[in-house]
Amino acid sequence: xxxxxxxxxxxxxxxxxxxxxxIRIPTRDQREAAILDAGYNTFLLRxxxxxxxxxxxxxxSAMSDRQxxxxxxxxxxxxxxxxxxxxxxxxxxxxxxxxxVPTHQGRGAENILSQILIKPGDxxxxxxxxxxxxxxxxxxxxxFADVIIDEAHDPASLxxxxxNVDLDKLRRIIAEVGAERIPYIxxxxxxxxxxxxxxxxxxxxxxxxxxxxxxILVMLDATRALENAxxxxxxxxxxARRSVAEILLEICSHSDGATVSSKKDNLVNIxxxxxxxxxxxxxxxxGLLVAYEGLHTYGGMSGRDMExxxxxxxxxxxxxxxxxxRIGQVEYLGNLLIDAGVPIVLPIGGxxxxxxxxxxxxxxxxxxLPAQSLAAAIYLDSGVRAxxxxxxxxxxxxxxxxxxxxxxxxxxxxxxxxxxTQSHMEVTAESVASVCADxxxxxxxxxxxxxxxxxxxxxxxxxxxVPAKSTAEVSQRPLAEPHLIASGG
Length: 489
Ligand code: F0G
Prior knowledge:
With 489 residues, the protein is an alpha/beta fold. It has 17 helices and 14 strands.
């Protein structure tokens, strides 16, 4: 008898499919028309023109039968909704914070946190920026200072905790600007822009201690803290036998509060919250909540949204199988790409696989927007939708008006939770590998419409001619990474 070997038993899905949503596979002609119409920006494609949608893991999860059932028992009272109190209990039990300020999604919480804590001229250190987080910090008069370790900016570094704070960088900023001008550090778990890379418990503890010595608060962006907890369990000595639920609680114990976009870990399509320990800070947050979001017992959510969210928060930590399968699927796609010789950010991240566009398109200077161009080329090839995370997302420096040039010029293939199958991952890998094989035929893009704020969402572009080979060599920026062919596993 033949033997069937493999590692899929390690991560296969702990659910079966009860309902399906048919999707259409657009033809090449339809894709050409669609990307032209979208100004080469994958954010502007209509979902109906997309085959496999890996734009984001935000709000794209499949809810469980229990969550759908929970929708039916939502309490839609304007004030004092029962569903709000269910949510308060779930956040308290799972994250450990006693004060809950519900918002319509993560950026609603970021707005309120920034406004209650930041004064003009303040500096907010963070482990790499996130687009909306930094925007709200700047809008409140603050400026962001990056204190992530250098390895985070290197796609090939195999550091197991590339989300870590560099404590020396943080000490230097405290010495330069003074602790009184640093209201809090914004500490992101499983850092999105670095490729879904975790922070270690040791680093969280040390950061918390350093900040508290100086009277600086620690505010987590706990949007993907569950995925961070999984990596701690897998990689950090002493945690292998602890459940992700225990690890998640411990992560949050090293903070004074958190903003959460519930559209990720929490398995719902909309929602978010600001959670705090200090009742006085929560009182100030509620003062703004009623102006920006809604009454303090619903924020920006309906009763049924809060009910499904309370259920999702409990479900995500109901055993480790959910997160194991979720990250297992991301790893599966990442390993297919590594085997095909496609340069990706290593180690493979928690919520997506990040293609290293600098290495794939070394003939394009960063100002020709290589990652934006690669995302458009992948869509054209197969109808797979990805997202640029490079110079376009980084925007312009408000002080100088110049483009920011992040070292990481990436295309993110983001995996929605519980939505796609292994075959969808295989189709994606085949398409990306074939686009990369002909990468020298891909030209850059130029803005035709550049919005001032968070430009990546709504910008439009036009294609530039493919640089001739000789020009290509000259235009290589010194930072371009060597074409990395990582070994499997
Ligand atoms: N923080 C992080 C780390 C995020 O990834 C996001 C959203 C937010 C905050 C904002 O939350 O969208 O609910 O307002 N990230 C999405 C993404 C948009 O595609 O990565 P939101």
